[in-house]
Amino acid sequence: MNARERSKIETRRRLMEAGIALFASRGISDTRSTALAEAAGVAVGTLYLHFKDKEGLARAILMEGLEALLAELGTVACDAALDVGEAVRRQTDIMIRFAQERPGLCRTLFDPEAVRWQISTEIMDRVVAIQERRFFDQAAAGLLDAAVSPRVAARAVVGMLLFSLNWWIIHPDEADAETLAATLNRLRLSGVYAR
User: Fold this and answer.
1) In the CATH scheme, what is the homologous superfamily, with its name and number, of domain 1-51?
2) I want to staple 44 with a disulfide (CB 3.0 to 4.6 A). Which of 37, 80, 120, 163 is the partner?
3) What is the pLDDT of residue 56?
4) Higher model confidence: residue 77 or residue 127?
């Protein structure tokens, strides 16, 4: 990789870091392109060389975060030695740690502007599709409660997890990580799986 390519990658990284920080603290709609460029130490035109617009930057931030989360969750899905309860607990721990390490990303995901632009919906749909496939496989193996629809359960579980994590990031004093994990795991395991 030559110096120009390294510089381009570094500039994109700085823009994304500035976006996460400013979107989380000000909200997407109240963050101006000039503020993003200034925080990244570049000219406004440079922002538009890397991203079509502010929405493009928000989308890139959230999609990159999603890919990182899915990669971590994928390690659990690939571990055939785990029983359902242990897999659920590990998934929840990964999501809580992810939210702790990236609170700005979580705030950006639930920003009303991200919802209006359908970015949040795209992310939710991708995560739901993964959970839905897992539930259909588990239903075929007799692990799901027979009265539970895998499609409905996938949306309910993903919604519960994402919205609970967003609430917790905003109100960290309301529950510690262990209480949050225990509650989410109990709800997931008691409401979906066969006894």
Assistant:
1) Homeodomain-like (1.10.10.60)
2) 37
3) 94
4) 127
pTM reported for the whole predicted model: 0.87
Please list, in sequence order, all residues whose beta carbon lies within 8 angstroms of the beta carbon of residue 70, skipping any fewer than 6 positions away: 126, 127, 130
Architecture of domain 58-192: Orthogonal Bundle (1.10)
Counting Cβ atoms within 10 Å, is residue 39 exposed (0-12), middle (13-18) or buried (19+)? middle
pLDDT, tens only, 149-190: 999 999 999 999 999 999 999 999 999 999 999 999 999 998
User: By C-alpha distance, which of 40, 19, 41 is closest to 28?
Assistant: 19
**CA 120 and chain centroid, separation:** 9
So where are the chain's domains?
1-51, 58-192
| 120 touches 109 (CB < 8 A) | yes
Tell me the sheet residues that pair with 37.
Answer: none
